[in-house]
Every structure is written in C-alpha cells, then in structure tokens.
Write a structure and sequence with these properties.
Elements: H1 6-18, H2 67-75, H3 82-91, H4 94-101, H5 108-113, H6 116-120, H7 122-134, H8 166-179, H9 183-199, H10 203-214, H11 222-237, H12 241-254, H13 259-269, H14 273-280, H15 284-297, H16 302-312, H17 317-334, E1 349-351, E2 361-363, H18 368-385, H19 400-404, H20 424-443, H21 448-459, H22 463-471, H23 478-494, H24 501-510, H25 540-554, H26 558-565, H27 577-588, H28 594-600, H29 610-624, H30 628-635, E3 647-650, E4 655-658, E5 672-673, E6 679-680, H31 689-692, E7 693-694, E8 707-708, H32 710-723, H33 729-744, H34 796-809, H35 813-837, H36 849-867, H37 870-879, H38 883-891, H39 893-898
Antiparallel strand pairs: 1-2, 3-4, 5-8, 6-7
Helix pairs in contact: 1-17, 2-3, 4-7, 7-9, 8-9, 9-10, 9-11, 10-11, 11-12, 12-13, 12-14, 14-15, 15-16, 16-17, 17-20, 17-21, 20-21, 21-22, 21-23, 22-23, 23-25, 25-26, 26-27, 29-30, 30-32, 32-33, 33-34, 33-35, 34-35, 35-37
Region (Disordered): 388-409
Signal peptide: 1-22
Keywords: Signal
Length: 900
C-alpha cells in the first residue's frame, strides 16, 4: 500500500514556491479553483481544507443552519422566518419577553406578532424567559486544572454557574419541568438541569439528571442533542472518557451546528478517540462517520480510508468532503500563486583561485542537476504545445510556431510545468485519486464526482478529456453549474499556447466576467470591516490573468505581460530598460483590441503625465550610462513630471492616498542639491547631506546651481564635459566633478536614489551588486513586480575614466590624492559586484563548512588585493604624505586598514 506523505511535502514545496513569510496566510496563497463549499451538506464546511485555521472558516455562518433554531421555528408553527426565530431565541432581550408576558410588548417583532402570540405559545416563551435569565451564568467555574481547556472567561462579566443558588435553581427547574405539558419544552428544562449540574461540577448529578429528565422522553431532536453534549462533558469530568467520547460522537453525527465543538471534545476526551469509536460503531452510518474522522485526522493517507467509506456508501456526503480536501491539497501543490526561481546556470569566472597559477581563469562547473531540470522542462513544454499534429505535414510534426515560443530557457510556461516540479509521491497521489474518482462517479448518483474527475484531468493537462466530461454533466444544482462553467473556461484558456488578437476577442465575447472589474459588494451584518493585512484572496480571475501574463511573456510581449498584474506606476520599483520600452510600445499602440483596451490598458494608471513618466525613466538610464546629451533630450520632455507616484497609508480612512510632495522636496525630478557634485566625508546614508557630503570648489562653474532639476543637471554635465576636453586645471576639476556625480549616484553613493526612480537612499531591493547575466528574476511573468527588483548594474568604469582624465591633467598633488581615493572607491564597487556574482557554494551541512568557507574567503581576499586595489596602492605609494591622505586616514576605516 502506498503511503502519501502529502501534507509535509506539499507545505514545504508550497512555501518554497510562494516565497511566503512567517506572517503570511497560506489560505491566501492559492486560487481555490475547485470550490470546496459546493458540497451539499453544509454542516461539514468547517472540515474542508485549511492551513491557516484549525477549521475551515471561509463561509458565512448562516450557511450552516442551527437545528435548535429550526426546532423553535417549527414550535412557532413557522410564523417566523429563520432569521426572526434566531433573533427571538438568541438575541432578544429578556425584558422584551417579560413585556410581552405582561401584555405590553414594545419590541417591534413582538408587536407585529400580536397579543395572541404569547397566549398560544406560553410554555415556550416562559421557557425562553427562564433560559435567558440563566444564560449569563452558564459557564463552568474556572479552576486552574486540566479542565480549564473548556472554560471561556468572558471579559467583563466574571459570572459562572456557581454564582446561582444551587438548591433554589435545581428546585425551580425541576418544578418547571414537572409543570410543562409540551414534551419538547419539558425536555428543554431537562437540558437546563443537566447543563447546570455540569457547569457547577456536580457531574454525578448531571448524569443522573440526563437519565431522569431527558432520556425517558424518547425525543431525539435538538434539545436531546444539546443535553447529550452536556452529559458527555460531565462524563469527561468523571473520567468516563470512553462513554463521553461515544456521546460526543453522537452529537457530531446528529447535529449540524455542533460538529466542530463535538470534534474538539472528542479529541480532548480520548487520545485513541476515533479508533475506539470505530470499534463501537454498529451501523453503516456510524462506521462511515468514524472512518471520516479517522481520515480527517490522519490526512497523510486519505485514499485507503476513502476506499472503506466507498464500500459502505459511494453516495456518502462526507466521502465528498474527503475528496475535496484531497483535491484542495493537490491544487495547492500544483498551482502556487507565485513562480519564483533563483536558478543560475550561467558560467561564472573566478580569476586567481588556482593555487598553481594565480592568474589563471577558472570556469565554475554548472550544476548538472539544474541543467537536466531545464532540459526536461523545455523538452516537456515543446511536446505539450506541439501536441496538435499538422495534418498537412507528411511526417506528422507539429507546427514550428509553437516551438519557437520555447527557445528561451528563461521563459517557461506557468502552471503547466508541474510534472517536473513536484515529486513522484505527489504525482502518484494525483493518479490514484483520479482512479478513485473515476470509479466513484460510476457508482454514485451525485454529479459532484464527475466534476471532480474533470478537475483532476485538468490538473493532469488532459484538457480535452476534462471538457468532454463537463459537457456531458446534467445537473440542476446551481453551485455545480457555476463550477462546471468555470472549469470550461479554465480548460479553454490554459490549453491555449498563444494569445493573438482573435483569441483576445474570444475572451471578451465569452469570458469578460472573469476579467472586468466588478462593483464592490456591500458587506452584510455578519462581516467585519477590519483591514485585511493579507490582501484579497486569489480567485479564478487571478489565475487566468497569471496564465495570460505567462503566455504574453512567452510571446515576447513583456509590456502586456507586465500590465496583466501590475500598474504602470509599478515600473518605478524596477525600471529596467527593456521592460519599460515594451510597456511604452503597448501604451502607444494605436490599434488595440477590445481586450487590450479594457483589461490591460486600464492598468496604465494615473502617474500624472505619462509621457513625462517614461521620459524620466529613459533619462535616468542615459545618465547612468554617462550619455548626458541623450539624458537631456529625454528630460526636456519631462518638465511636466508631477513626481514619482507614491502613496501613504491613511489610517483613519483605511486606504492609500497619493503622496503630496512638500515644497523643496526631491520628487524624482526636481530639487537636487549641488552636493551631488561633491564627495562624501564618511559613508552614512542616514545622516543629513551636509554631514555626509562636502562641496568641491564650484566657483569656476556658475552653471552649477544650489538646487537643480534633472534637465539642469544634465545640462551642467554637458558643459563640464566640454570644459573637460581642455588641458588646464579647470579641465581636470570638470572631469573630477563628472566622476563625482557618476560615483555619488551609483549604488555606493549618497545620492544613489537619483537615477533609479527612488526618493531616498535608504536600503532596499534596488541597491544590490549582482551583475551576473541571469540576475533578472522574471522567468515566468511579471507578477509581484515591486517585490522582485532588478535594475541594470552600475558601470563604475564610467566614473573611473573621468577620474583618470582628471588625474592625467591635474598638477595639484593634493587634488590628485583626492581623485585617486575616489577612483579607489569606485574600484571597490567593482569588487563588490564581483563578490556578489560569485557567492560561496559551500553547503552548510558540510562537515568542513568552516574550513572551506575560510579558504573561499582567503581566495576572495587574494583576488581583491590583486585586482581591485590598484588605486589604493598608487595612493599609498606616491601620495601618503599629502594632507588629503592623512585626512582620509582619520575618516575612512578601510583606507586606514589598507595603509597599515
């Protein structure tokens, strides 16, 4: 027999895939395509699959009717609706009922029911008055002991059953019991006697009360179930765990609204609870229920239990609960909401690590298992999307147009990669669950099993078979109908390898409801208005957007892929050039389809002036490449830029509101300090500019203003560049100032935010050094774009080249020392890039981890000193006696260390 250790394996894979944090909610991290709550018996809703809570809670409480309210509704001859009955029994104030009894009701419901209502239902209403009097006290007195688990201390009241006079209360309830004529009302007083004795810890008296006042009436309705629940609690208090457990099991079996609490009580009563229940089960119904509880508790291996339940009753509703839990588990493992990967199979060179030849270049060997993985992925998807044979081709080969989508190993289809991502046990489970479902749908009269079978075939990518099953299902169940409709859409869209204009028209014509925004639904009285820190629960529409985003990604339409899941303003978080260009191309496209106009283009949101927004991004990139003329041409188009679009959280309104820039504040374009031309006194990004930065002598360059916008800054650099072509000291300073700007706006500089669409230099995803070819994290689509940062790396040689020219022209030794230090700082940036692109591959589990890590660090230090200390060495050798060098020794720790 196969053992499916799904829970641990799937949770592990799930968290790896989604990149979930410790505070995330796993039930917000899958799409729930197969709707669990379509089971017909809603009393089992708490036992559907959930990772976030002990029981499933994503349904309205009103979906599970309370048998006690149903019983009262019948008692009142169905004159009241369920909601009115629930209000009367559970929420109406005792004073309102007393006023009705006196003939002067003020409660509107009671006034509407009329004066004869009390006369007709006197016994029941008198009971409710007594029950409402007792209710505030019906809690067990708290004692710090093993029993404390089922005591709820209600804040502010402190009342419990011992606050009532025991003898008077027992006498009153007994008298009322004897006086009652209606057997059901009589049994309710019996329930109160059992409960009161239980909560005062008179356990023997509670057991006796059940046998004396409840059992002889031979009624098995709601009052009996409620009394049986109290009896079981008293038996647990007496240590009669087996008897208590059996009675809790009967409550679980017969009650609709108390299944969850009865299940917990069974768990607390007896560690071997469900196995002992199975031994006592005589009827098929009891056995089936016991098997369900066993399977629910030991969900690692559900199918053997499901087989036993199938043998008893293939139409069992609880068998469907087991099946939907299994399907939900598979869906979570096959369809995570994020597809992240940090695989890097590119070759990396490590220079100077061969002890026999320090100058030899070594090529790191690619990880064989990762290459094998990608090869299998590519081969699989080529086969997948080439499944339709070309009838006109004599050799039956597929149309090559589909294959061309898969030539880039960085672009892998989302969703359908699962067979190579999850282990064999998960695939075996899917196969065996499909076999079980196929067998059950032949025996059961419930269409549910056909829907389940179609969904499992969908997970296995057999879209044709899935659709055929769905087309043949005949049902009048509205929940089933909705699920069938959704699954047909899934099969259609997921099986489509290429999205063209015709298919987009098809989406808008037939499936627009899955893509158009729906008006906000007003919450009912049972829902809270608290802010949801996890965001919206992923939906079918979200899944379909992901599939389409991936298809556009495969097709090279990155702009459309990006806008399926992101706003235009999100480009600020990772403004890499190729993506920005693709988004702009889509923005400027004149012949957009209806789908492109209404679904994709709606995410080209308010960034102020859109043209200015793009111009700033392009201008910034040109500045980082030291192409000041190009930058100026872009910035000239950006003078209407209204600021980087940011939002602040408004705690009063519980929503994001646009950031309003204060006068004189840097907004992404304007109000740049002339300190950007200076040099840093010390490396402290959190300090004020005047503390971290020092001005150079700008007197010879009046076009450098105290505060500039980016257009003015670009123009100033162009003028400095022209002056720098000379041979005098002014030319040297001009080149030095250009080098300063390039360094100060690099990842190491105090003004590193200027050309990456950021507002300050605080640390974050934009500021990292890795320059390896596969750094771009987007391999499937651009979902979660602000969380996965990639910006083209700095080119420190640009700053170094300007410094070199300044050094070659200048005749001032002090100035040369300062220039050399700036060059050394830029060279340090090159080393950081190298180090980040060559991380240690030593495994933490390696017994020689420390030894190997130390050896690797020694190699890095050797490389750093041999290749990335050129200008420090020159500064030490030729300029150590300068005042500049002496001053640097006191303010720069790593320079002081190098000079030792």
């Amino acid at each position: 027999m196969k053992k499916y250790l799904l829970s641990l394996a799937v949770v592990s894979l799930f968290y790896t895939e989604s990149g979930a944090c410790a505070w995330s909610d796993p039930d917000y991290e899958y799409f729930n395509l197969f709707t669990q709550i379509i089971i017909k018996d809603k009393s089992y809703l708490p036992f559907l699959h959930s990772y976030s809570t002990r029981f499933y809670t994503d349904f309205k409480p009103s979906m599970i009717p309370d048998e006690n309210i149903d019983s009262w509704k019948r008692y009142f001859s169905n004159q009241l609706s369920y909601a009115q009955t629930e209000y009367l029994v559970n929420k109406m104030n005792i004073n309102d009922l007393n006023a009705l009894k006196k003939g002067s009701p003020t409660n509107q419901l009671l006034v509407t029911l009329g004066p004869r209502f009390y006369q007709r239902y006197r016994e029941g209403l008198d009971y409710l008055i007594e029950a409402k009097y007792l209710e505030p006290y019906m809690k067990i007195n708290y004692i710090e002991s093993a029993d404390s688990f089922y005591y709820y201390r209600e804040p502010g009241t402190g009342k419990n059953a011992t606050n009532l006079d025991y003898n008077k209360t027992i006498a009153a309830l007994t008298s009322l019991y004897n006086a009652a004529k209606n057997p059901e009302i009589k049994q309710r007083y019996g329930y109160q006697l059992v409960r009161f004795n239980h909560y005062t810890r008179n356990y023997d008296a509670a057991v006796k009360a059940f046998k004396t006042y409840v059992e002889p009436l031979k009624l098995k309705g709601a009052p009996y179930i409620m009394a049986l629940d109290q009896l079981a609690g008293a038996q647990r208090g007496l240590g009669m765990n087996s008897e208590a457990n059996w009675n809790f099991f009967q409550v679980f079996r017969d009650s609709k609204s108390r299944k969850e609490s009865a299940f917990i009580s069974m768990k607390l009563s007896d560690t071997a609870s469900f196995n002992n229940i199975l031994k006592r089960a005589n009827t098929n119904e009891d056995k089936n229920m016991a098997y369900f509880l066993l399977g629910y508790e030991d969900f690692n291996n559900p199918i053997p239990v499901m087989e036993k339940m199938f043998e008893i009753n293939p139409d069992s509703e609880i068998l469907k609960v087991m099946a939907v839990r299994s399907i939900n588990e598979l869906e979570r493992s096959y369809l995570p909401i994020y597809y992240y990967t940090n695989d890097d199979n590119s070759e990396k060179t490590i220079t100077g690590t061969d002890n026999t030849d320090p100058g030899k270049t070594q090529t790191a060997e690619p990880k064989k298992e990762e290459l094998s993985f990608w090869q299998k992925i590519i081969r699989f998807f080529k086969n997948l999307f080439s499944s339709k044979k070309d009838k006109n081709s004599p050799d039956g080969k597929a149309d090559q147009s589909d294959d061309e989508l898969l030539d880039n190993p960085d672009r892998i289809p989302v969703f359908t990669r699962n067979n190579y991502w999850y282990d064999d046990k998960t695939k075996d489970f899917l196969d065996d669950l499909e076999k079980f479902t196929s067998k059950t749908k032949e025996k059961s009269k419930d269409e549910y099993w056909q829907i389940a079978d179609a969904y499992l075939k969908f997970l296995k990518k057999d879209y044709k078979a899935s659709t055929e099953i769905l087309e043949n299902i005949k049902t009048s169940n509205p929940e089933y109908t909705e699920e069938i409709k959704r699954m047909k859409v899934l099969n259609d869209i997921v099986s489509q390898p290429k999205i063209d204009a015709d298919y987009e028209d098809h989406l808008m014509k037939d499936y627009s409801e899955y893509f158009t925004e729906k008006p906000e639904v007003k919450k009912d009285s049972t829902e809270t208005d608290e802010y949801n820190y996890y965001g919206e629960v992923p939906s079918t529409a979200d899944f379909l957007k992901d599939v389409l985003a991936n298809r556009y990604f495969l097709q090279g339409e990155d702009g459309k892929s990006f806008l399926m899941n992101n706003k235009l303003s999100d480009l600020q978080y990772s403004p890499n050039s190729s993506l920005v260009k693709s988004v702009e191309d889509f923005y400027r496209k004149t012949n957009k389809t209806q789908f492109e106009q209404q679904i994709i283009a709606k995410n080209i949101n308010d960034v102020g002036n859109i043209d200015a927004f793009f111009a700033v991004i392009y201008g910034d990139r040109a500045m980082r490449q030291a192409d000041f003329e190009k930058a100026k041409s872009y910035y000239a188009k950006a003078q209407n830029f209204s600021g980087i679009p940011r939002s602040d959280w408004n705690y009063d309104e519980k929503k994001l509101t646009p950031l309003k820039y204060q006068a004189g504040a840097y907004n992404g374009f304007s109000n740049i300090s002339d300190l950007v031309f200076g040099h840093n006194v010390w490396v402290s990004y959190q300090s004020d500019p005047d503390e971290s930065m020092k001005k150079e002598d700008y007197s010879a360059f009046p076009f450098i203003k105290p505060a500039m916008n980016k257009l003015e800054l670009a123009d100033a650099l162009i003028q400095l560049k022209k002056i720098g072509n000379g041979k005098d000291e002014k030319s040297a300073i001009a080149n030095q100032l250009i080098g300063n700007v390039l360094y100060n706006t690099s990842i190491l500089g105090y003004y590193r935010q200027l050309f990456v669409m950021d507002l300050d230099n605080s640390n974050g995803g934009k500021y990292y050094f890795d320059t390896s070819p596969r750094t771009n994290p987007y391999k499937y689509y651009y979902k979660g774009f602000p969380d996965r940062i990639y910006i083209e790396p700095d080119n420190f040689d640009l700053a170094i080249n300007y410094y070199k020219r300044a050094l070659s022209i200048s005749a001032n030794k002090e100035q040369k020392a300062r220039i050399l230090f700036q060059m050394a700082s830029a060279e340090q940036g090159k080393y950081y890039q190298y180090e980040a692109s060559h991380p240690s591959t030593v495994d933490y589990s390696d017994p020689k981890y420390s030894e190997k890590s130390d050896a690797y660090q020694k190699q890095l230090d050797q490389i750093k000193n041999q290749k990335y200390r050129t200008y420090f060495a020159l500064l030490k050798a030729q300029y150590a006696d300068t005042e500049t060098a002496k001053d640097l020794l006191g303010s720069c720790t790593y320079f002081d260390y190098f000079m030792q």
